[in-house]
Amino acid sequence: MDRVSEIGPTQQQPSPADFGFTVDHRLESGGARGSDGRPLGRAGTIRTPHGDIQTPAFIPVGTKATVKATLPETVAELGGQAVLANAYHLFLQPGSDIVDEAGGLGRIMNWPGPTFTDSGGFQVMSLGVGFKKVISMTEQAYSDAEVIAKTKDRLAHVDEDGVTFKSFINGDMHRFTPEVSMRIQHQLGADIIFAFDECTTLLNTRPYQEDSVLRTERWAIRCLDEHARQTAERTHRPYQALFGVVQGAQYEDLRRQAARGLAELRGAEAAEQEFDGFGIGGALEKSQLGTIVGWATDELPENKPRHLLGISEPDDLFAGIAAGADTFDCVAPSRQARGGTMYSEHGRINAKASAQRRRFEPLDPECDCYTCENYTAAYLHHLFKANEMLASTLATIHNERYIVRLVERIRSSIVEGSFAELRDEVLGRIRKR
Ligand SMILES: [Zn+2]
């Protein structure tokens, strides 16, 4: 797309028709089924003003408008179809007004493709609180709603109107409301933005989760209204698609109620405004991940995309896709890469381990990434030991490519009807190690 034209005065009124989703293939065997027997999993295409996304897709995270240690060109070369940045971090630094003046998120970071921002809700509510996205069965389960505040210095306070929190950069107090999050995300200008939701944990009590689902729905209505106002005012910018976020923790009735509610929701003032897609958020118990996603997707309309927030482990990706999630994001591949933990067909490899010191072959001989095609495990080991910056770059390229390619292979398997075979092969090799 000619990038000058998108902010030119001749730009047509942004319209919900500029965004869309089509289901290309259904996961006929090996996936989960809805209550009416239809397959929940699918391969599809998301259409945005900055290009298409073939789904399922893993979306690399560039929290502060950069996928750490990589060039945007590199992210595109390794198969990244879109980038997801964080509204809260960009609001604090450099400021969403500055990103707006620069022409939006894609323009300031020189990424011409589709972009996402998450609402900031998770970061605002989780910083300093010790939230985890996926909690394994082995971790002790608490039931006291206050346990979080007791054990850690809680930086955020949730009330009916929004969240007051302390900046992790300088300790300044800030307030996020649904309206503030929408205004910030419109200034950032990503193609796909998320409604401001309350993120609970598995440690919150059932009554708290019930209240939270209802509050998130009230906030969702306010997000729809503010989104409609911003869309009407900012006609110089391409249409931004708004996703509602399904919460409800580990409770089937709450997840279904939340999903059904958001699917039918309209603005209070903007009676036509509905969600363009949906996020599935909140903490998920690992062994229940596919089941919980399936409860939500069973209630959501088929013709709108679903994004599973904060997921990238291979077994979680297979489970999420089998249950009907279309896109995924997570900081883990690049964060682990910078620490020297590398993904491979046979599970994790520690690039710093002495076993890599004289391995004069690619880190993962089966990988097609730039790093594995051009460098040896021994060189990567040396760069990590010498604390060279290139270690982070080469490692990030490999890990991001591994996850992006894995999801590409899952997409092909849905098209070709070999999903279960691929899942058994990939997960079997990882587990065998
Ligand atoms: Zn590689």
What features would you highlight for this structure?
TIM Barrel, alpha/beta, binds zinc ion, three-stranded antiparallel β-sheet, 39% helix, 2 domains, single chain, 433 residues, 16% strand
Specify the number of helices. 16
Protein structure class: alpha/beta
Rg, alpha carbons: 21 Å
Q: How many beta-strand elements? A: 18
What spatial order of strands do you see in the largest sheet? 4-16-15-13-12-11-6-5
Examine the coordinates and then state which fold CATH places here, giving the name of the CATH topology of the largest domain.
TIM Barrel
Enumerate the distinct ligands. Answer: zinc ion
Task: Report on this structure.
The radius of gyration is 21 Å and the shape is globular. The chain folds into two domains: 17-330, Queuine tRNA-ribosyltransferase-like (TIM Barrel, Alpha-Beta Barrel); 331-426, no CATH class. The strands form five sheets. Strands 4-16-15-13-12-11-6-5 form an eight-stranded parallel β-sheet. Strands 1-2-3 form a three-stranded antiparallel β-sheet. It contains 16 helices and 18 strands. With 433 residues, the chain is of the alpha/beta class. Helix 11 (314-322) packs parallel to helix 15 (389-416) and helix 12 packs antiparallel against helix 15 (389-416). The longest helix has 28 residues, at 206-233. The protein has helices at residues 72-77, 87-92, 96-101, 105-108, 121-126, 147-151, 178-188, 206-233, 252-264, 289-299, 314-322, 332-338, 370-374, 377-385, 389-416, 419-432; strands spanning 20-26, 42-48, 51-55, 57-60, 83-86, 115-118, 134-135, 156-158, 163-166, 173-176, 192-194, 241-246, 277-280, 284-285, 306-308, 327-330, 341-342, 349-350. Bound molecules: zinc ion. Zinc ion binds next to helix 13 and helix 15.
